[in-house]
Amino acid sequence: MKRILLALTLAACSWLPVAQAEVQVEDAWVREAPPGARMLAAYLTVNNSGAEDLVLVEVQSPAFSHIMLHKSEVVDGVARMVHLDEIVIPAQGSVQLQPGGMHLMMPAPEARPSAGDRVPLVLIFADGNRLEVQADVRKKP
Amino acid sequence: MLKPEKTRFFLPLLAIIPALLGALLLTGCSAPEPPELRQATLLPVAKAVADFRLTDQAGRPFTLDNLKGRWTLAFFGYTHCPDVCPTSMAMLGQVQRNLAKDPSTGELPQVVFFSVDPERDTPELLASFVPYFHDSFIGVTGAADEILKLTRQLGIIYGKVEGSGSDDYLVDHSAAIILFDPEGRFRALFNIPHKPEYIVADLQAIKQYYEATR
Ligand SMILES: [Cu+2]
Question: The pTM is what?
Answer without folding.
Answer: 0.83
